[in-house]
Amino acid sequence: MKARTQFRAGKGYALDEDFAGKRLLGAATKAANKKLTAAQCKALDREETVALTAQIAECQSMLYAQRKKKVLLVLQGMDTSGKDGTVKAIFSNINPMGIRAVAFKGPTDIELAHDYLWRVHQHVPVKGEIAIFNRSHYEDVLITRVQDMIDKPECQRRYAQIRDFERMLSETGTVILKIFLHISKDEQRGRLQERLDDPDRQWKFDPNDIAQRKKWDGYQRVYETAIRETDADHAPWYVVPSNSKTQRNLVVATLLLETLQGMKLAYPPPDPKLSSFKVE
């Protein structure tokens, strides 16, 4: 089964806390590896992810050379779900000329003076590029809903606007894949505590994460609804179990590679006029 089928959310999707800890790809799922330890399976998964990123790099090179299509990878997830780590694991060895990562923080005063999609639209990928959104326009139907900044009718309007926005991107050559990095509440607790306990990582700790953690159930509900409302064949949602960082990276790399391979990329054909040209 293709990963794009296995991890596709679909319109009737319901978030499952237990799914966050599943291992559905990689060494641990292979019958031949039953005698391997968990550490050995993780090591094999890391090796497989590295091999996948090499294939992604080749596809990205062809995408950049063609300059016809664009790819938008949206990463969403609760705090500590690994959005930064996913970008580092999959794209650190890829030519930066055709990659652009954008982290969406709280909107500025200028951004708030425009419609909520204004700041997002200017960062969508150009031809030949893969753009990675670390958070995205979905924050405007997630945190805004949990914190009662918008009501249900406004949220429904925004779902419709997001659907139209993504359809427009798709119709103008952007291939979209949206990934929810799914961690459990207990796993988040452990990761937040690790940041507090490590002096070199305390800079990553934000006291607001604790305040948002108290609204965990609310966030799960709005994520589930947003995924249901905006999943489409041209802009699919995938839910990736992310309690295991190695499993998360392996699944995201697999999903991205399958998407790129489905685009049937190739280098531009050589120019016959240049085949006999000699540089003096």
Give a nutshell description of this structure.
By secondary structure, the chain is of the alpha/beta class.
H/E element string?
HHEHEHHEHHEHHHEH
Note the beta-strand portion: 5-15%
Poorly predicted sequence stretches spanning 5 or more consecutive residues: none
Largest sheet geometry = 5 strands, parallel
* Count of helix runs: 11
Classification by helices and strands: alpha/beta
Describe the protein's architecture and organization.
The structure is a single chain. By secondary structure, this protein is an alpha/beta fold. The protein is built from eleven helices and five strands. The chain has helices at 3-6, 38-66, 83-91, 109-112, 118-121, 143-146, 152-171, 185-197, 207-213, 216-230, 245-262; strands at 70-77, 99-103, 130-134, 174-182, 237-241. Helix 2 (38-66) packs parallel to helix 11 (245-262) and helix 3 crosses helix 11. The longest helix is centred in the first third of the chain and has 29 residues, at 38-66. The mean pLDDT is 94.
Question: What are the defining features of this structure?
Answer:
280 residues; five-stranded parallel sheet; alpha/beta
Q: What is the fold's blueprint, element by element?
A:
Blueprint: H1 3-6, H2 38-66, E1 70-77, H3 83-91, E2 99-103, H4 109-112, H5 118-121, E3 130-134, H6 143-146, H7 152-171, E4 174-182, H8 185-197, H9 207-213, H10 216-230, E5 237-241, H11 245-262
Parallel strand pairs: 1-3, 1-4, 2-3, 4-5
